[in-house]
């Protein structure tokens, strides 16, 4: 939608009006047939149509172009009232600078900055509202360190608040201790399983070594027996040699 033509001071050229909403062009685009539209208006139109709303020539988004420079300059020089005129703002400025003015206008309706407050006030009255807003917060004057809302002043009890805080801290500490305990137990259990596994592996290796040693001892005994047999045979051969 464009700017309400009723806000403008003096005559507005017909060529500076949107062909769809008939208000003064806002973020204008121009078709090849030279008809101009607000960006929002023509995009909305082309969702359901494929032609210019003025002369029915076929158009699409790809052929839309910015407004001619001279038309853009004429548009920017138009004078109009601030949208907050109904609240008392008497500012009249060019279309080119109206957005900047309205962002800073003292008569703009803005929300209260206090969480939970839904009141809308004029920017110029915001400080006064914040001073009395029931949702304003401040630090407890008794020194407990709590931030309290104005509406809670009569209900605030430093001792009760600190006791609640202490209980919360205690609960949090217990939870952390339990978590640390479970984590430590998990680690110990993991190490214990690892040690048992290593012990089993070592035990198997020891048994294997014992088996190998037993086989070696058996082989040694066999070799010693074979050596004695061989020595006896040599001695017998020596005796037979002497007899011969």
Automatic annotation (TrEMBL):
Pfam families: zf-C3HC4_2 (PF13923), zf-TRAF (PF02176). A zinc finger (TRAF-type) spans 101-144. SUPFAM superfamilies: RING/U-box (SSF57850), TRAF domain-like (SSF49599). Residues 101-144 form the TRAF-type domain. One of its GO terms (biological process) is regulation of canonical NF-kappaB signal transduction. Residues 192-243 form a coiled coil. PROSITE patterns: ZF_RING_1 (PS00518), ZF_RING_2 (PS50089), ZF_TRAF (PS50145). Residues 18-56 form the RING-type domain. Keywords: Coiled coil, Ligase, Metal-binding, Zinc, Zinc-finger. One of its GO terms (molecular function) is zinc ion binding. Gene3D superfamilies: Zinc/RING finger domain, C3HC4 (zinc finger). InterPro entries: Znf_RING, Znf_RING/FYVE/PHD, Znf_RING_CS, Znf_TRAF. PANTHER family: RECEPTOR-ASSOCIATED FACTOR, PUTATIVE-RELATED, TNF RECEPTOR ASSOCIATED FACTOR. This is RNF41 ligase. It comes from Elachura formosa (spotted wren-babbler).
